[in-house]
C-alpha cells in the first residue's frame, strides 16, 4: 500500500494585542519516541509558509513556547496513530505569558478531502479557553471534556490570529459542540529535551478507522487532513495523508487466476 504525504506549515509574526515578545528561535529536534525504527512517518513539507527550509515549522514570535513543530502518523491495520510535537506545553495545555493565559486547541481532523472544514476533533481532555479567556467545551460547562475522538457540530475560532489580517488563517481552534464521541484506542503524553537543551512536548493518540468510516474504510481512496493550533494562533501545523485502496480478496483471486492462465499459455507457446 503506497502513501503520499504533504504538510502545509506556517509560522507568523503577531502584532499588538497578542504575542509581541522576544524569545529563542530554536526548535526541538524530533523526539526519540518518533525516531528511527518506531514506524512513524512525518508529513512532508509543502505549501507557502514563510521561511520554511525543512519539515519543521519555523518559530513564530514568542520563541519555543509558542512553536508548532511536528505532525506524524503511523497506520497499523485499521488503527491510525497520530503524533503531535510542539514547543507549546501539551502536558497541561497551558502557557502563561506575560500576563495572559494561552491554551492548546484540539486536533482537528477531516476525512472527506476538504481541509476547509473539519468534521472530527481529538480532545486531549484538557481545560480549554479561547483568546478572550472564555471557556470552551462541548457541553460540560467547565472548559473540559472527556478525552476522545468527537464528531464536531461547531468549532470555536476565537483566536487572535484568525486570518482577519489577511496573512494566514489558523482556525479552527477547539470543539465548541459535538454530535457524539468515541473512545481512543491509545493515548500518551510526554516531554522531550534534545541535545541542544531545547524542550518540547508531544501527544500520541490512536483510534480505529473502522469506528469512524466503517468496515470498508480502505476499499476506496482515502484522504485524511489534520490541523492544530493554540488560542493565540501564533503558529499552526497541518498535514494530509493519502491512502490508496486495498484490493478486495475476490479481486486478488481473479488477478492471481489470470496470471496462472497467462503462464500456461506462454508455456504452451514455448513448447
From TrEMBL:
Keyword check for Signal: yes
Coiled-coil stretches noted in the UniProt entry, renumbered to this chain: none
Ice-binding protein C-terminal domain segment(s): 245-269
UniProt keyword Hydrolase, yes or no: no
Keywords, alphabetical: Signal
Signal sequence residues: 1-28
InterPro entries reported in the protein's UniProt record: Ice-binding_C
Protein name, as recorded: PEP-CTERM protein-sorting domain-containing protein
Organism for this UniProt entry: Desulfopila aestuarii DSM 18488
